Amino acid sequence: MFLQQIFNWISFQLHILKNILIYLLPAIPMTIKLTLLAFALALILGLLIGLSRLSQRGLIKAMSKIYVDVLRGIPLLVQIFFIYFGLGKILNLNRFLAGVIAIAVCYSAYLAEIIRAGIQAIHKGQYQAALSLGMTPYQTMRYVILPQSFRIIVPPIANEFIASLKDSSLVSIIGLRELTRAGREYYSQYFVDFQTWLVVGIIYLIMTLSLSRLVAWLEKKYRVHGYGIPR
Amino acid sequence: MAQNMIIRTVEISKRFGEIIALDKVNFGVEPGEVVVIIGPSGSGKSTLLRCLNGLEKVDSGEIIIDGIKLDKDKINIHKVREELGMVFQEFNLFPHLSVSGNLCLAQETVRKRSKPEAEKISLELLKKVGLLDKKDSFPNQLSGGQQQRVAIARALAMNPKIMLFDEPTSALDPEMIGEVLEVMKNLAREGMTMLVVTHEIGFAREVANRIIFMDQGKIIEEGCAKDILNSPQNPRTISFLSKVLK
Question: Bridge partners of B28?
Fold first, then answer.
């Protein structure tokens, strides 16, 4: 009798979890699309800003420093509000674009600092060797410095990628129907809070863990001879 | 000074803050000459080499390399560097590229040679420095002496008219110095114009046409190798040589 009750409870819970999952699944592609697009943009912007931070020209250097300081110093949530409700009104941005821009711009500031540090970590003898062979500063950066920096910056950039996937949930606040938003919708219809957020959390976890595996593979692939702890 | 100098400097000066690294240095190198610069550390020897290929900017004075005047604004610096091979104390091989990759990179990007052409030249040069079997190794798999020989081959691959050596054996274990000096001696015998900063007096005695002694940013004494080493005139040269030769 007692066992029967436990069995009924479990099967009821599983039924709820299954319903939640089915409800949430269609929202997952939006989270992925939002993160991938925003992060790709953030990488391009971050590289440009990071290189500007190392520029010989005072104005470019100063402006990139201001860019990093300002964007790194304001909460992403506030930036989302500002871009959607502020700039969005003027530029007529939809929710998706506003979300992409907010995440891209915010993360580009962090990435710029990581890329700058990765470039500065390369020994100055490497520049001197490349320049003394007649290579231009651009060729030196492209063929000698960046390939070596890449190995250094992959782990911290991966951190930011995973963080940006989680932070994409903030865009739910302006009504973009991604994973977190779908979770809120389900909750407000059926009032099952514990189970809903459990499923949402697990889906995020599955996505971030998959990313970690991908990064571990990348790190192995771009390993540079002579660096790191020998195995 | 003769007009056919391949390197010529006129009154070049360079300061690092309070320290005067070069103090109105005038000197020249003729084609085919092997010139060795000696002197205590901090005497400006390395700075002089770095100024010649524009890795450091001079504060005043003129540098003329193979008839091209080095502009202060560095516009023609790449042209000049193509003619100057440089070998560093710390080798500075590119750790992410194989030995042959190290030799090919600048050939392809600067000299615009095709990959097969660059590889062919690389193999010839590796054979010359005795490292043909290491062409697919990475720098960290080589000993210091081997790395420095690769670095010499990498500079030679650009067909420079002049080779600059900045203390090429100072970072090496004693038993590896010989193999690097051997490569340099062969190069000298082939008639390469060389400017070498080194503490290897034996090398200077054997291959240098001329020795320059520098101290505190100035050329104190210069002359043919035998004269400087056997009968130095300036008291500072005498004191330095007595310490080095022991």
Answer: B8
Q: Which of B94, B155, B158 sits opposite A144 (nearest CB)?
A: B94
H or E element, residue A141? none
Convert the pLDDT of each residue in A7-47 to its tens digit: 999 999 999 999 999 999 999 999 999 999 999 999 999 99
Query: B222 near B210, Cβ under 8 Å?
Result: yes
Give which of A56, A132, A140, A153 to mutate to test B binding, by max B Cβ within 10 Å.
A132
Sorted by sequence, the CB contacts under 8 Å of residue A146 that are 6+ apart come out as: A119
- B64-69 contacts: CB < 8 A, separation 24 or more? B64/B5, B64/B7, B64/B8, B64/B9, B64/B10, B65/B6, B65/B7, B65/B162, B66/B6, B66/B7, B66/B161, B66/B162
Q: Which residues of A touch B81 (CB under 8 A)?
A: 131-134
pLDDT tens for each residue of B99-157: 999 999 999 999 999 999 999 999 999 999 999 999 999 999 999 999 999 999 999 99
A129/B93 touch (CB, cutoff 8 Å), yes or no:
yes
ipTM: 0.90
CB B139 to CB A225 under 8 A? Answer: yes
For residues A171 and A168, what is the distance between their CA atoms, to the nearest angstrom?
Answer: 6
Min Cα separation A110/chain B (Å): 26
Contact B2, B29 (CB under 8 A): no
Q: Among B245, B246, B244, which Cα is nearest to B41's?
A: B244
Q: Which amino acid is at A74?
A: I
